[in-house]
Task: inverse folding
């Protein structure tokens, strides 16, 4: 026992053997991931529950400490809804997209880049990490154009990502920082409008632009389930060729569709490993990164 552990109290529930097994199992993964870029999209209940939020931040600082280059991309839908409610403005959704007029865009930018982004950076700093808050506007990180689905509907200042310049993020990663990115984008060329961007899509685009080794979506579901009412029916691996089959039979439906689409986009863009994992499980990110069992659903 280390001389620094004078106050150590043995926990009878823990045994040295299992602890050693965990560390031995994790070692090859440590070696594999050091120096690699991992993009984590953070949202859902893991963002609302303070204990889960603290666990996610500890995980990210640990990854950064051992030399893994982590980029954290976050949304903030519930917080935006709350602020709109406080200002007396109704949250309006059309075909699953938040209608974003000029006033709503100001609130979106204020909540994402002014509050949530800095809250996350503060927690990472408290946990001993070196974090820097960014938005997609900074250094033209994310460029976008007004979304047009060809249905004649005006969605306001909702944007489709048209480009990503990862140079600022790469510079920060090389200096050991954890970039924390909020998903507000600036228009192309002479278009100075700001655009509200889907955070899952933005994270996938950033992962591709960075040449990331892994793209992980932390969400509030276990992954893709054969039966949505049975957590034990989790599908742990889905090959790209089988995705359409799961669309057709309804296994992938509702809110899971855009998440799978982002995984497919990242995989087709050259990201070797894409995952949807349950952010409600404490330290799910570490389980996915450093164990044989993994967690959630991987698109490969």
Result:
């Amino acid at each position: 026992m280390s001389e620094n552990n004078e106050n150590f109290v043995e926990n009878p529930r823990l045994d040295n053997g299992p602890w050693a097994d965990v560390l031995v199992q994790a070692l090859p993964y440590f070696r594999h991931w050091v120096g690699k870029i991992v993009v984590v999209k953070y949202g859902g209940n893991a963002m609302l529950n303070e204990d889960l939020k603290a666990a996610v931040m500890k995980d990210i600082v640990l990854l950064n400490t051992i030399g893994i280059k982590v980029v954290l991309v976050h949304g903030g839908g519930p917080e935006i809804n709350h602020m709109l409610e406080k200002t007396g403005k109704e949250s309006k959704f059309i075909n699953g997209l938040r209608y974003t007029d000029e006033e709503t865009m100001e609130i979106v930018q204020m909540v994402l880049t002014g509050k949530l982004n800095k809250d996350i950076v503060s927690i990472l700093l408290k946990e001993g990490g070196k974090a820097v808050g960014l938005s997609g506007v900074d250094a033209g990180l994310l460029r976008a154009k007004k979304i047009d689905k060809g249905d004649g509907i005006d969605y306001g200042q909702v944007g489709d990502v048209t480009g990503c310049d990862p140079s600022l993020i790469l510079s920060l990663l090389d200096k050991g920082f954890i970039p924390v990115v909020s998903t507000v984008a600036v228009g192309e060329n002479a278009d100075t409008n700001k655009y509200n961007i889907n955070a899952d899509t933005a994270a996938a685009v950033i992962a591709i632009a960075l040449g990331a080794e892994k793209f992980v979506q932390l969400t509030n579901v276990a992954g893709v389930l054969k039966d949505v009412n049975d957590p034990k029916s989790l599908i742990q691996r889905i090959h790209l060729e089988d995705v359409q089959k799961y669309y057709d039979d309804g296994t992938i439906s509702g809110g899971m569709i855009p998440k799978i689409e982002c995984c497919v986009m990242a995989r087709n863009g050259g990201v070797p490993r894409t995952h949807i994992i349950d952010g409600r499980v404490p330290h799910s990110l570490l389980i996915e990164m450093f164990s044989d069992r993994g967690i959630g659903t991987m698109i490969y």
Remarks:
- Residues 101 and 156 are 5 Å apart (CA to CA).
- DSSP finds ten helices and 14 strands in the chain.
- The radius of gyration is 20 Å.
